[in-house]
Design goal:
By secondary structure, this protein is an all-beta fold. It has strands spanning 2-3, 11-12, 28-29, 33-36, 46-47, 53-56, 61-65, 72-77, 89-91, 94-97, 104-108, 114-118, 128-130, 133-137, 142-147, 152-157, 167-169, 172-176, 181-185, 191-196, 204-208, 211-215, 220-225, 231-236, 246-248, 251-255, 259-264, 270-275, 286-288, 291-295, 301-305, 311-315, 322-326, 329-333, 338-342.
């Protein structure tokens, strides 16, 4: 028996007798492109108009590669040795990149040359960009709002250290602190509100449907109304999650070994969980369009329907693969630095 479908690897099985009563095959989706990198990356590449990608690696290099991920167009070596360069943010023909070493740079997308740079702005979290304003939270507890159109910068005392990437919301920015502090700031660096989510250490946060969902490594979650700062709900799952949560389309997904737990972002209500099949989950789920992708201990990556949790097909990868999702696309990074790109998941 041969199973074929466009975009999928062929699956073949030979049946010699009638001893097999049933067969539930699962096809493997081919990647749009793949390439083995010579450097380690931590963040998803940034897509440019026309299909090229921007890679930021741990060695301090920023590279533009073609859509196949294999041909280098240019490389800019920052010389930063801290091990942290933020994901590149695209603003017109500029790439905005922050670093722990302290330089905030704008690179020309065409040739990688420095357009401008600011010193003494060390940060450990990716900035946010919205409506021409770049927000940067520095390690000294300050928040900087940079007007990229007029070249002006306003600085305010944040009062805490940011623990996760900044989140743009309705022209403002949301900043989560290492001890559960959450605040909203305007483009003029004026604080609109602040709330403390007590008991959350080193929290992470994601925004969906107007709710900033905050979680920690122990499985505690809270939903903060992004407009007002009011705490809508709080819950303790009672089990440490695998990796980080994901919030999308009004739902929150938290992965454990046997289940992908699902909550309603608006009120924290529990929804039907997605249970693992014959192999336990090995990594955090990621949402890509109408699909949910979860690494399994047995090796391949399982693709589920986002609403029903029904297993649809698999992607090449293993238990150690990292999933880097961005704007409806997926990158799968293996331990040997092979990077596979999936433009979309049907």
């Amino acid at each position: 028996i041969e199973l074929r479908a466009p975009g999928f690897a062929m699956l073949e099985r030979r049946l010699d007798d009638d001893a097999v009563a049933s067969w539930e095959p699962q096809l493997t989706r081919r990647a749009t492109s793949s390439h083995r990198l010579d450097r380690t990356i931590e963040e998803a590449p940034t897509a440019l108009p026309g299909g090229d990608r921007i890679l930021v690696d741990r060695a301090g290099d920023v590279s533009r590669v073609d859509s196949t991920l294999s041909r280098s167009v240019w490389t800019y070596r920052t010389g930063d040795l801290s091990g942290f360069l933020s994901r590149a943010l695209l603003f017109g023909d500029q790439l905005l990149i922050a670093s722990l070493d302290g330089k905030l740079r704008a690179l020309n997308t065409a040739n990688g040359e420095v357009v401008w740079e600011h010193d003494d702005m060390p940060c450990e979290v990716t900035p946010a960009l919205s409506n021409g304003t770049l927000w940067v939270a520095t390690t000294d507890g300050h928040l900087h709002a940079i007007d990229l159109v007029h070249g002006k910068r306003i600085t305010a005392k944040l009062g805490y250290t940011a623990s996760d990437e900044l989140v743009a919301y309705d022209g403002d920015v949301l900043v989560v602190g290492s001890r559960g502090e959450v605040s909203r700031w305007s483009p003029r660096a004026k604080r609109r509100w602040r709330v403390d989510v007590e008991g959350f250490a080193g929290p992470r946060a994601e925004l969906t449907a107007g709710v900033l969902v905050v979680t920690d490594e122990q499985g505690r979650l809270a939903g903060i109304d992004a407009a007002s700062g009011a705490e809508r709900w709080r819950t303790d799952l009672g089990v440490p999650p695998i990796g980080t949560m994901v919030a999308a389309a009004g739902h929150v997904l938290v992965t454990t070994e046997q289940r992908v737990l699902r909550l309603q972002a608006s009120d924290g209500a529990m929804l039907k969980a997605f249970r693992s099949g014959s192999s336990a989950w090995a990594g955090a789920a990621r949402v890509v369009g109408d699909r949910v992708v979860v690494p399994t201990r047995a090796g391949p990556l399982q693709v589920l329907d986002r609403e029903s949790g029904r297993a649809l097909y698999s992607l090449e990868g293993d238990a150690k693969s990292r999933l880097l999702d961005t704007a409806g696309s997926l990158y799968v990074l293996d331990a040997d630095r092979t990077l596979r790109y999936h433009r979309a998941l049907p």
